[in-house]
Specification:
heterodimer; A: about 110 residues; mainly beta; 4-stranded antiparallel beta sheet; 12 strands; B: about 120 residues; 7-stranded mixed beta sheet; globular
Amino acid sequence: GDSVTQMEGPVTLSEEAFLTINCTYTATGYPSLFWYVQYPGEGLQLLLKATKADDKGSNKGFEATYRKETTSFHLEKGSVQVSDSAVYFCALTGVENTDKLIFGTGTRLQVFP
Amino acid sequence: EAQVTQNPRYLITVTGKKLTVTCSQNMNHEYMSWYRQDPGLGLRQIYYSMNVEVTDKGDVPEGYKVSRKEKRNFPLILESPSPNQTSLYFCASLSGTSGGSSYNEQFFGPGTRLTVL
């Protein structure tokens, strides 16, 4: 079945460092891909999304490109801030059921001043 | 403000004592679902509902019940909770028409942390 694999955390960075969180997926067909962020004590918020190959999703300085050839959707940010500390989830919606989100296990990011 | 609300936010209970976690959304969404979040497993779907009186099992439905009598509410019921249901639970609702567009965004509630002793 469809699945998402994320790099394990925690990822620990200093402020202004470059961030990459790897995400790869297995799916039948061409799913839509998402990154959700969970700040401490809160629910998940959509960070960015891409719905077809080569699409680039971007928001708040974060970017991810839908790479069909490598089945990847890596999250990047050029300069992280302390306020970016959160848990990041990569997810996809199935081709047959476009309403159901399939999540990766989440990656905790800790940014220190 | 558009939002999904859950109550309670925290709950400690004992094995076998029936409980209900409420979920309500004010966005007139048709599709709602429940997820549980466990360390190392991410979020897994428990149940979903595509509209009033229409519910179906997700990936981990055992031990849970749901109902959808009104569009805005989607309570999660644990008839006889067990310690393996200790988890963080999220309710979500989906914008747009269910089953139609990959542009739909899921809106999540703040979560309910449940501990079953």
